[in-house]
Design a protein that fits this description.
Pfam families: PcrA_UvrD_tudor (PF21196), UvrD-helicase (PF00580), UvrD_C (PF13361). The chain has about 775 residues and is an alpha/beta fold. The chain has 28 helices and 23 strands. Strands 11, 12, 13, 14, 15, 16, 17 and 18 form an eight-stranded mixed sheet that branches. Strands 3-2-6-7-1-8 form a six-stranded parallel sheet, with helices on both faces. The structure holds adenosine-5'-triphosphate and magnesium ion.
């Protein structure tokens, strides 16, 4: 057990204290995840069978990494651990126990799109206005209720729950919730929240099943405990009730999912629920430099709601935090890419040592473009993911429907795809017939002539039904790969994409081929015992954004671009936190209360603490948001960084007034009070309560050419919203007809009419 020597005293204590409840709430980078990993290895070496251990992580990726590390210590046996996200572990259990809840084991897992589409359908049927009942808002309410274990029956029976919706002029929310649940059930489908909700129901109503799993999971371990919601908490509480061998690790300062129902109270309740609780403190940070640890500590001190804890490190002092000040969002992209390249060269870092972290997904564009220009490989996590692309969802819908012919959302997607002459009116007829006869859509379709009469529209439906039945036979007999290829071809989907010779069409065709590759890989993987299509679909349904973009080509040296939320638990040598502007980070949506602002600050804390060696922070003075150029103000969070550890840096792209030049790179720079002028915000100017969103849609600034074409001269460097950076070659004509010929770095030569051009003068 050499690995015990690689742990400090409290870490070792936590690893070897195996019996009884244990809680470790400690700061970032203090080795919580490491403790959890070694604890599992230790248990196995003590002789605990892997299938008696349940380990819950926040992403599948984290589970995979943990399993690999444990494998290094205990060998292949680690494969038999029950390890994964709450959703993946409990969906497996639900498949085994589905019949107890009235589902069958081939139930579909609805993703957010499916749920929204079903809600839209229900709104239409109930004749409700989707402007008042916005589908995404309705889904949030339903999700919130489920995560607090409020069933639709409870919701309808208790004014405490519906009063708020009623006050917001949404009195029908309960009816929508009820119908939504009924329709999911009829479709033999569960949404993400159902996976947890139904597990709770299963353990509540079937004591024998609960007993079975209580005895199965003798040891329960949870990473990132601060982000569990009530539903998750109760599941683990029930499972651990007999053996009481539950170990949770987390950091209240990193709780960033309150908006999804995560509840910091779980940490406080834990001590109450387990009077014999042992707590271990970890205070030494092994990840980051002294500078980074200090800065992170100072930032989080601004939060009132936090458990006091000490974090220190023995690591080197490290370099200052560098602030990059950019003129525009594109300039920010360039500065970051340029700085990243410089760091890489100076320190012999690899691409994979870098991460660019942002508040929201759409911010990735400017960095992608700039990195591409620099020839630096990168991967974007999240955003519109592979599995959310239309052509992929279409094929997956076929697979889902063949496996679970009650799946209404899949049915609606594929019934007339590729076009087979089954129009909306016919689909509506099918829906009505199904409702009237209390049948699923598939039951109507598979006996079309019986329920729909013998009109002309019948024959394509009968063909469709025959095709699906044939697919079902193939799925029974073949593995996931053969079945998927057969369905891709047999449905006509592949042919339709193949025949589309446009660039987009070809890309779509290649995407479908890529999906087939993924299925092949799944089938060829010796670790997968079950090679059926059901098993494959189950995996796909539970892929989280942080799991995607795993390198398939074996080359994993790329810069990671991701939201801070998906960076949780990860670490990188150099981190860029970008877009540090008021209304962006902290996000405008999160400024209405102190609690929300504190959640944003925790997010900032998570971002800072991902960095090992060096941290950069950037912001832009102007940014296109929602199609408008807006002035930005530096984030209040920049002010919370201890100035003695701060350096500002500007490079050749910015020539705004009073700028520092490259020469003071690396030297500490004491910021003057108006350093971030023109209108540096102070916290006082932002009343947190009832703040009206300050409207920042400025008219174009002085530098913005469309408002002042007279300023533009030949030789000037400019930036265009679409074409990027360029230099003015020539100016012709006068007045409103004045035009400039510009040579853009990437878009080539263009002549633009200045009174319309979205141009900015850079220098
Ligand atoms: N005793 C130790 N000796 C050397 N390195 C350690 C030790 N403990 C932890 N580390 C290293 O420190 C880094 C942070 O550890 P880990 O990821 O487990 O921290 P964490 O508390 O889970 O952080 P986070 O809160 O961000 O999830 C890892 O690279 C880990 O290998
Ligand atoms: Mg961790």
């Amino acid at each position: 057990m050499d690995y015990l020597d690689s742990l400090n005293e409290p870490q070792r204590e936590a690893v070897t204290y195996t019996e009884g409840p244990l809680m470790i709430i400690a700061g970032a980078g203090s080795g919580k995840t490491r403790v959890l990993t070694y604890r599992i290895a230790y248990l196995m070496q003590l002789g605990v069978e892997p299938f008696h251990i349940l380990a819950l992580t926040f992403t599948n990726k984290a589970a995979r990494e943990m399993r690999q590390r444990i494998e290094k210590v205990v060998g292949n046996e680690a494969r038999n651990l029950w390890m994964g996200t709450f959703h993946s572990v409990f969906s497996k259990i639900l498949r085994i126990e589905a019949e107890k809840l009235g589902y069958t084991s081939n139930f579909t897992i609805y993703d957010t799109d499916d749920s929204k589409s079903l809600i839209k359908q229900i709104l239409k049927e109930l004749n409700l206005d989707d402007k008042i009942y916005k589908p995404s808002v309705v889904l949030n309410r339903i999700s919130g209720a489920k995560n607090r274990l409020i069933s639709w029956q409870a919701y309808l029976n208790n004014p405490i729950f519906y009063a708020e919706d009623a006050a917001e002029m949404k009195p029908e929310m309960g009816r929508i919730y009820k119908t939504y649940c009924e329709r999911c059930f009829q479709a033999n489908a569960m949404d993400f929240d159902d996976l947890l909700f139904n597990t709770n129901v299963l353990f509540r109503d079937h004591i024998d099943v609960l007993h079975k799993y209580q005895h199965k999971f003798r040891y329960v371990l949870i990473d990132e405990f601060q982000d569990t919601n009530l539903s998750q908490y109760l599941i683990t509480k029930k499972l651990a009730a007999v053996n009481q061998n539950i170990c949770v690790v987390g950091d209240d300062a990193q709780s960033i999912y309150a908006f999804r129902g995560a509840d910091i109270q779980n940490i406080l309740n834990f001590a109450k629920d387990y009077p014999d609780l042992k707590t271990v403190k970890l205070e030494q940070n092994y990840r980051s430099t002294k500078t980074i640890v200090h800065v992170a500590n100072k930032v989080i001190e601004n939060n009132k709601d936090q458990l006091k804890k000490l974090v220190w490190t023995d690591n080197e002092q490290g370099t200052h935090i560098v602030v990059l000040k950019a003129a525009t969002d594109n300039d920010e992209g360039q500065q970051v890419a340029y700085s990243l390249f410089e760091e890489k060269m100076q320190n012999h870092y690899h691409n994979k040592d870098f991460a660019i972290l942002y508040r929201t997904n759409y911010q990735s564009r400017a960095f992608e473009e700039a990195l591409r220009r620099q020839g630096i490989k990168y991967k974007v996590y999240g955003g519109l993911s592979f599995y959310q692309r239309k052509e992929i969802k279409d094929l997956l819908a076929y697979l889902r429907f063949v496996i679970n012919p009650k799946d209404e959302e899949a049915f609606r997607r594929i019934i007339n795809l590729p076009k087979r002459g089954i129009g909306d009116t016919t689909v509506q007829k099918i829906v009505i017939a199904a409702h009237e006869n209390n049948l699923s859509l598939w039951e109507v379709v598979s006996e079309a002539s019986k329920y729909l009469g013998k009109g002309r529209s019948i024959s394509p439906i009968e063909d469709f039904a025959l095709m699906i039945k044939e697919f079902q036979i193939v799925v029974e007999k073949k593995d996931a790969f053969e079945a998927t290829s057969h369905i891709a071809k047999g449905s006509g989907l592949l042919r339709e994409l193949f025949e589309d010779k446009t660039v987009e069409g070809r890309a779509r065709y290649e995407n479908v081929q890529e999906l087939l590759n993924a299925v092949k890989e799944f089938v060829d993987n010796p670790e997968k015992e079950d090679k059926s299509l059901i098993a494959f679909l189950q995996e796909v349904a539970l892929i989280t954004t942080a799991d995607e973009n795993e390198s398939k080509d074996g080359d994993d040296d790329y810069v990671s671009l991701m939201t801070i939320h998906s960076a949780k638990g990860l670490e990188f040598k150099v981190v860029y936190i970008v877009g540090l502007e008021e209304d962006l980070f902290p996000s405008q949506m999160m400024l209405s209360s102190r609690a929300d602002l504190e959640e944003e600050r925790r997010l900032f804390y998570v971002a800072i603490t991902r960095a090992e060696k060096k941290l950069f922070i950037s912001y832009a003075l102007q940014r296109y948001r929602f199609g408008n150029l807006r002035m930005c103000e530096p984030s209040r969070f920049i002010d919370e960084i201890d100035v003695q550890y701060l350096t500002t840096k500007n490079n050749r792209f910015s020539t705004l007034k009073g700028e520092d030049t490259l020469t003071n790179f690396g030297k500490p720079l004491v910021r003057k009070a108006d350093d971030f002028s023109p209108s540096k915000p102070s916290i006082k100017t932002y009343p947190l309560q009832n703040q009206k969103n300050p409207q920042r849609e400025h008219t174009p600034s002085a530098n913005f050419v469309a408002s002042n074409p007279a300023k533009l001269r030949e030789g000037m460097k400019v930036e265009h919203q679409k074409f990027g950076f360029g230099r003015v070659l020539k100016i012709d004509n006068q007045g409103t007809d004045k035009r400039a010929t510009i040579l853009f770095d990437n878009a080539g030569e263009k002549t633009l009419l200045l009174s319309f051009a979205k141009l900015m003068i850079i220098e």
